[in-house]
């Protein structure tokens, strides 16, 4: 009998990659998304899409009761860290309370023995990193309303696992990107801008903190780890990361190199600019609007546990990821 999976956030980047993977594996895939049935998503024909707002408990209850999934992947979130400072309450309602509701429903319906639960936890939990690289044992120190909301989600997942024996796993996912990453995340913002600048469609790229370092991997690899976690004998939490840190500044340099532009940096702080080394034209400037009130400066995960227990490792390097995204934008723009 084919397994049944239910994915929240089916229309997000990870929802798209995960549904493709599960369909290939022969799953029957159900997805929940906001909006109306007219909206168009890739793969829709192969996915049973439920249009629902996840804050609606009664509807969520009905969907889970009807579908009786073998696996639930909670990928829906207000996932933008900067936005969480502007919408802290909405971020909390979505990110913290939805996983609680799902776990409650699993328990209320007596599905503890049937339904396995994956929670998209995050490297942002480590915020003001107490150890480099961050491991599963590194203390958390969240630095944004987003990270604090995800901290609740992380622990409620652990708590329901311990209290009610629910097969619940946290994937502590570090940044993961792809050609379908939206532009409000820095990777896609940069790759799209480099291509537009190269083609003369945009003058400059405005960015915030260039010094932040992140561990960027490929989303297609990360959804495999999610699936693997739910196929183990025991539920557990795993860091999913590449183990390599790069700064936003390096990301800019790599992306421009893909379109044959060498960036030379001049100035300091808010006055720092990135110039085209061949002609001195300013292509990158700082806009303080993109700064966050506080933020994690260095996030880099140690994926050893996932490698040893799940047999998982990333297949795409930072350089390959930037190339893949820039190439795709070249074709799109
Ligand atoms: N978005 C954005 N836009 N970020 C910028 C910009 C800009 O113009 N300029 C500099 N940055 C810096 C941010 O300050 C941050 O340090 C870094 O680029 C990455 O920002 P994002 O791409 O927005 O991602 P994030 O690291 O805040 O969060 C992502 O990864 C987390 C896992 O580590 C998101 O996907 C989260 O949902 C996820 O949990």
Short summary of the structure?
This protein has helices spanning 13-24, 57-67, 81-86, 88-108, 145-164, 186-198, 219-230, 248-258, 304-310, 318-332, and strands at 4-8, 28-33, 47-51, 71-74, 116-122, 168-173, 176-177, 205-207, 213-214, 217-218, 238-240, 246-247, 263-266, 273-276, 282-286. The chain has 333 residues and is an alpha/beta fold.
Question: Could you explain the architecture of this structure?
Answer:
By secondary structure, the chain is an alpha/beta fold. Helices cover 38% and strands 18% of the residues. A 7-stranded parallel β-sheet has the order 3-2-1-4-5-6-11, sandwiched between helices. Strands 8-15-14-13 form a 4-stranded mixed β-sheet. It has a two-stranded parallel ribbon with strand order 7-10. Strand 5 (116-122), helix 5 and strand 6 form a beta-alpha-beta unit. Helix 4 (88-108) packs parallel to helix 5 (145-164). The mean pLDDT is 96. The structure holds guanosine-5'-diphosphate-alpha-D-mannose.
Low-confidence stretches: none
Radius of gyration: 20 Å
Largest sheet: 7 strands, parallel
Bound molecules: guanosine-5'-diphosphate-alpha-D-mannose
SS-based structural class?
A: alpha/beta
> What fraction of residues sit in β-strands?
15-25%
The count of DSSP E runs of length 2 or more, i.e. the number of strands, is 15
First-residue to last-residue Cα separation:
44 Å
Mean pLDDT: 96
Give me the strand/helix succession. Answer: EHEEHEHHEHEEHEEEHEEHEEEHH
Backbone shape:
globular
Number of helices: 10
Instruction: Give the helix proportion (percent range).
Output: 25-40%
Strand order of the largest sheet: 3-2-1-4-5-6-11
């Amino acid at each position: 009998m084919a397994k049944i999976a239910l994915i929240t956030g089916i229309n997000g980047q990870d929802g798209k990659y995960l549904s493709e993977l599960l369909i290939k594996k022969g799953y029957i895939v159900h997805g929940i998304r906001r909006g109306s049935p007219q909206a168009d998503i890739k793969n829709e024909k192969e996915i049973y899409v439920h249009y629902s707002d996840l804050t609606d408990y009664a509807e969520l209850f009905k969907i889970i009761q009807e579908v009786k999934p073998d696996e639930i992947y909670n990928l829906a979130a207000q996932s933008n860290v900067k936005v969480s400072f502007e919408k802290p309450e909405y971020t909390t309602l979505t990110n913290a309370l939805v996983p609680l509701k799902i776990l409650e429903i699993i328990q209320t319906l007596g599905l503890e023995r049937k339904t396995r639960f994956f929670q998209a936890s995050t490297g942002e939990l480590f915020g003001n990193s107490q150890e480099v690289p961050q491991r599963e044992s590194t203390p958390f120190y969240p630095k944004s309303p987003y990270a604090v909301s995800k901290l609740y989600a992380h622990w409620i997942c652990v708590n329901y696992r311990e209290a009610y024996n629910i097969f619940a796993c946290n994937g502590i996912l570090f940044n993961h990107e792809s050609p379908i990453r939206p532009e409000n995340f820095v990777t896609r913002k940069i790759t799209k801008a480099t291509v537009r600048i190269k083609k003369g469609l945009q003058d400059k790229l405005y960015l915030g903190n260039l010094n932040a370092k992140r561990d960027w991997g490929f989303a297609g690899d990360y959804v495999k780890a999610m699936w693997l976690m739910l196929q183990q004998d025991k539920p557990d939490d795993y860091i999913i990361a590449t183990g390599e840190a790069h700064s936003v500044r390096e990301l800019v340099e790599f992306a421009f190199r893909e379109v044959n532009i060498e960036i030379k940096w001049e100035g300091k702080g808010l006055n720092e600019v990135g110039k085209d080394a061949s002609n001195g034209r300013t292509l990158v400037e700082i806009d303080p609007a993109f700064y966050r009130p506080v933020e994690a400066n260095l996030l880099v995960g140690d994926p050893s546990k996932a490698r040893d227990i799940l047999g998982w490792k990333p297949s795409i390097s930072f350089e390959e990821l930037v190339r893949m995204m820039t190439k795709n934008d070249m074709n799109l723009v």
